[in-house]
User: Fold this.
Amino acid sequence: MIPVTNSIKELTLLQPDDWHIHLRDDQALATTVPHAASSFNRVICMPNLVPPVKNVNDASAYRERILQQLQSSAVDSDRKAAFDPRMTLYLTDNTTAKDIEIAAQSGIVQAVKLYPAGATTNSADGVTDINACVAVFEAMEKYNLPLLLHGEVTHDHIDIFDREKRFLEDILGQIIAKFPALKIVMEHITTSDAADFILAQGNQVAATITPQHLMFNRNHLLLGGIKPHFYCLPILKRESHQKVLLDVATSGSPKFFLGTDSAPHATDQKEAACGCAGCYSSSIALPLYATAFDSVGKLDKLEGFTSRFGPQFYGLPVNETTVTLVNQPMQVPTNYPYFDGSTLTPLMAGETLPWSLKL
Ligand code: DOR
Ligand code: ZN
Assistant:
């Protein structure tokens, strides 16, 4: 457990937004939507459904399903009113500049997500040749639609721990050079290489950081037995990278902001011979981030990361509601009911966190 300084007892923040979340679809929404709505106003919903969210019609139907679930869930009425799912399109080899124009004009698509084909869960329809995306990137630049990146190369011969670094070197630098006005978010960064790279770019390039990459490293995943609930992609790296991520997240730089990458998979799909990638954190994300920031005595920097820098990057106002965290321990549930009788095991299941949400 990360040591806590215990200096502040209560912390009221402008309501955070989650700029990267997987809510999944259909029955999964009954679990994921109330959890997300309990902490966040705007959530950027990842499009890697089966089949993916490829156009405005898919995005608008998906948003309706999320909102319908919200209405029938036992969520406080003020949280129901504040919750605002924002949609993303899944970039494929067949996405056209016209699709981007329609998306930009729809008012419901906030960004476009690029998964290199095969990089992670449900990415089989992702982009196989980024060089073929020129017209699409030009259109995104023109319509000011941000590009969200799963920043890992996928070649079989590249070591899993080097895939993010290679993406920066081989791909991201070229995209930025060719499309200097394109807004880009390198999602869920995991390395000091990515942190340094982002710091060296202009304000149009930013990064999200997950709670697991701030709090854990590959020793937590692999020492003393494999811990499948720490397995996500990009994979946890060595401790020196974790430290740099914590440094930049708590530095007050507006280039780094909250994106949980909360990615639900049923417990039996995680605890399997070939376990799925993804950590589920949405329900406890704010206590997790508070614990991470408190561990380095930087709670004063939490609100910028959770609630100010994301809207600033996206050109949106900060939220008007607030949330209060208290320095009172909470026990993370061992699991939540999920659909078809399955369960969902959150990050740090059964463990005690020093911070909790004030009810
Ligand atoms: O660990 C991950 N899980 N990383 C991703 O990029 C996708 C996500 C998922 O959808 O399960
Ligand atoms: Zn993700």
The radius of gyration is 19 Å. The mean pLDDT is 96. Residues 56-72 form the longest helix (17 residues). Residues 22, 48, 120-121, 150, 232-233, 263, 277-278 surround DOR (ligand 1) (CB under 6 Å).
